[in-house]
Amino acid sequence: MRENERAMSDTSAAPNMAPYAAAPPGRGADDSFGDRRRAPIDADIDPWDLLRAIWARKERLLVLFVLFLAIGAFWVMTMSPSYVAQSQVSIKPRAGEVSRFDQQGTPPQADQISIESEVQILTSGALVPPLVRELNLHQVPEFNPVIQSGGALSQLLQILGVTSKPAPATMSAITENVLSHLSVVRKPNSRVIAISFTSRDPKRAAALANAYVNIYIAKQVEASNTLNSNATGWLKIQIDELRDKVALSEAAVEQFRAQTGLFQTNNSTLPREELTQISAQLTQAQADRATTIARLRLAKELVDSEGAIDTTAVVLQSPLIQNLRQQEVQLRAQIAEMSTTLLPSHPRVGTAEANLRDLRLQIGREIGKLIRSLENEAHIATERVRTMTRRFTQLKTRMGRLGQQEVELRALEREAAANRTLLEQFLGRYEAAIARAAVDAQVANATIISRATIPTNPSAPNRKSGLVLAIIGSAFGALALVFLLEAMSPGFRTAEQVERQTGMPFLGTLPDIPGARSSPGIAIDVLRNPYGQLAESLRRLQSGLLMARVGGQPARTLLVTSAVQGEGKSGVAAGLARLMAQSGYRVLLIDANMRRPGVSQTLGLHPSLGLSELLSGRAEFERIVARDHSSPLHILQAGGQVANPTSLLGSTRMSWLIYALVQQYDYVVIDGPPVHSASEAPVLSQLTDVTVMCVKWGSTNRRVVMRALKGLSAASTRRAGVFLTGVNRRQYNRLADDVSHT
Known about the structure:
The protein is of the alpha/beta class. It has helices at 2-9, 47-56, 58-77, 112-123, 128-135, 145-149, 152-160, 171-180, 202-260, 270-304, 313-316, 319-341, 347-439, 463-487, 495-502, 519-528, 533-547, 569-582, 599-603, 611-616, 621-624, 645-649, 652-664, 680-687, 702-715, 729-735; strands spanning 83-91, 182-186, 192-199, 446-450, 506-511, 549-550, 553-554, 557-562, 587-591, 626-627, 634-636, 667-671, 690-696, 719-727. The protein has four domains: 58-79 and 464-486, no CATH class; 83-94 and 102-221 and 444-450, no CATH class; 270-439; 497-735, Rossmann fold (3-Layer(aba) Sandwich), CATH 3.40.50.300. A hairpin with a 5-residue loop joins strand 2 and strand 3. The longest helix is centred in the middle third of the chain and has 93 residues, at 347-439.
C-alpha cells in the first residue's frame, strides 16, 4: 500500500485504466449490466401498466365504488315523485274553411307543416292564462314562484317586519312555470298530438291535461266561426260585382263580332286556317327541295372525284348499275386469272379487256342518266316552292288587314271567359262554404281521441333505473378516479416501466420494511437479518455487480447515486458493501458526498479525516481508513468540506487513488452525491466501472430520474442501472409480471 501511495504522489504519470475502459458495444458479455446507449421509448404511460396499477388498488376502487353508490342511492331515494297525465288530440282539415276559394273538392289532409304549427300554438303560452284562471294555478305553490319561495321561516320574518311581503307573481312568470310542466309531442307517422302535464299531485296533472285540451278546442271553434263569417261576407260582395262584369263583357264580344264579320270555325277564322295549311305545305316543299338539291350536288361532286359516285345512295339503289358492277368484278377476276397463265398479247386477254371497257362505258351512261333525273327533280321542287311562296304572301297580306281586329276580338273573348270562370268558382265556393259553415259551426279541426286519467304510478323518479344508473355511474366514477390517480402517479412502479422509459437495466428492488426505511436502518437490518428481505434484495444487486464486465474484465468499482436526496442511496451503498465484505471480499466503502456526507451517520461512525484530506495531501490512507465495527468492511469517510469538490474529485490524483485502491481491494463502493444536488456524480461515473441509480419507488418523478440518467450518459459511457428503493411488496407483486425481485 505504501508503494501505491508513492505512485499516487507522482502526478506526472497517468495510471493504466485500460482494464476499466468501457466495453465495446458489440460484445455480449459486457452488456450484462446494461448499456446506457439503449434508446428509451418515448411513451410516459403504458395502458397495460395502468390496468395492472388499477387492479393493485382494488381495495381503494371498492371503497370509492361503495361511497359513490351510497351517494347515488341516497339521491334517488330522496327525490320527490312526479306524475304525468296525457291527453291526445287528432288534427284534421278545417271543413268550414272558405278563405281559400281556389281549392276544389274536399279539403286536403293536414300535412306535417300544419301539424307542427298546431304544436307551436300549444306550446306558445297563449292558452296558459285561461288555464291559470280556470284552475286557480296562481294559488298553487307548484306553479307560483312567489309561493314557492315562501315558508314558515319566511312568514315569521314577514310578521316580525324583518322582510317585506313579496310582490305578487306576474302572469308571465306563472306562464313560464306552467310551460315548464307542459310537454307537447307529435306521434310519429300520424296526425295525433300528445299533450302531457307533470305535477306532484296526480289529480292536478290529469285536470291540467284535460282542461288545456278543452281550452284548445274552444279557441279553435271560436277562430273557425270568425273566419267563416268574414269569408262568406267577402264572397257575397265579390259575386255581385262579378255578375255585372260577365254581362258587360259577353255583350261587348257579340257586338264586335257582328261589326267585323269574324265568325268562328273550329276555334279559328277561315283565313287563318288556310294560312296555317299553306305555311305547313310551304315548309315541307322547302325541305324537299333542299334534300333534292343536296343529293344532286353530292352526286356531281362524286362524279368529279372519279369513281366515288358508286358510294351514293342513288347508285347503290339502282339494280342495273349494281348488276353491271357485279359483271365488272367477275370480268376483272377472269382477267387476273388469265394473266397468271397467258401473255398480255393473247387474244383472250384482249377480248376480256375490251369487254371490261364496254362495261365501264355503260356504267358511266347509267350514272349520267341518274344525275339528269336528279336535276329534273330539283327543278320541279324549286317551281313548287315558288308557287306556294306566292300564295303564302297573298294570304299574309290579307291577314294583315284582319289581324288587328282579331286581336281585339280575342281580348274581349278572354275577358268575358275569365269573368265567367271566376263567377262560377265564387258561386260554387260560396254555396259549399255556406253548407260546411252551417254543419261545422261548433266543430274544431282537432278532436279529442283520449282524455287524461289520474296516474297511479309516478313517472319519476324511476328508482329501479336510477339505482342501475347509480351502480353503473359509481363503477365508472370509481374506475375513472383510480385511473386518474394512477395516471398522475409521478414515479416508477415496475421493472418494465424502468427499462422501457429509461433504456437502462433494472437492477432490483429494496422492500419497504418498518424500522428499516432510513439509510441507517437499511445498514443495520442487513446485519440483524442476514437472510431477510433487505439482505436478499442487496444480494441480487451484488450478483449483478459480480457478473458485470468492463473491457472483458470483472467490474471492480461501483458508484451508488440518486437523482435527488432521500432515495436511500447511502443505506444501499453501506448495506451492499457490508454484504460483500461478509462474503469474503475485500471491500472499501468511500463517502464521496463532500457536501452532505452520509456514510458516517449511516454506519454510526464519528466524523473524521477522509477523502478530502487524502486528495489534498494532508493525510495518508493508512491513518484515515476506518474499519466497520460490525463487519470486515473498510470505510473512507468524506472528510472535511472543501471549496470545490468537483475539481478535487475530477483531478488526476483521484484517478490515481481509484487505480491504487483497485490494486488493494476486490471491490470499491462509492457513495456519491445526488445528480441534481451536486455536479460530482457525472465526474465520479467516469472513474467507476458501473453506476447504480437509486430511485424511490412510486415517488421520485420519472422526468427527474431520466434527466439525471441523461446527465450521466453525457458524461460517461460506462454502465448504469436503476435500483428501486422503498418498494411496497404487496402492491409491487400485483403490478409486476416478475416478482422475483421481491
